[in-house]
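ARCHIVE CARD
Drawer: 12
Card no.: 0347
Subject: one protein chain, sequence and derived structure
Cross-reference: see card 0346
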Amino acid sequence: MNLAPLPEKPMHVRIAVPDDAAAIASCLAELGYDTAEELVVERLRDFSTAANDKVFVAEDAHGRVMGVASAHRLPLFHVSGYLVRITALAVSKAAQGAGLGRMLVTAVESWAWSAGARRIEVTSSDHRPAAHAFYQAVGYVIDERRFVKSSPVQQDEGR
């Protein structure tokens, strides 16, 4: 009997579930974030019922979670509508360049536009020029300046 191999599933994006926590934490770790798997599980549970938060994962052709994007919707005060902020976007180094990042951004954008967003923003640290190039390649432009003040409690913990 000659069995032909099963065709690979195409890469795709779906809503994250708590069982994805280990893979998500791994993707975040590759970006330098020391995010505990337990925190990811907690956030996924919290966000699963929140109208203003979405977490998407990208799976490769073998069904492995290789990327994550989270987004948060904020109501605008001065005009009608919402701002959606991409709060995390990470693709495993092994899967970078395969289109998963673009797929994740497209998923966030689809949700954002259907949820009444007027604009989507993302921040990226100055030490990530490859990320800056990626965001520009998918249509994002540098706009405005962000000012940040950290909590005194966080500053004390970092000593």
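Annotation on reverse: The radius of gyration is 17 Å. The mean pLDDT is 91.
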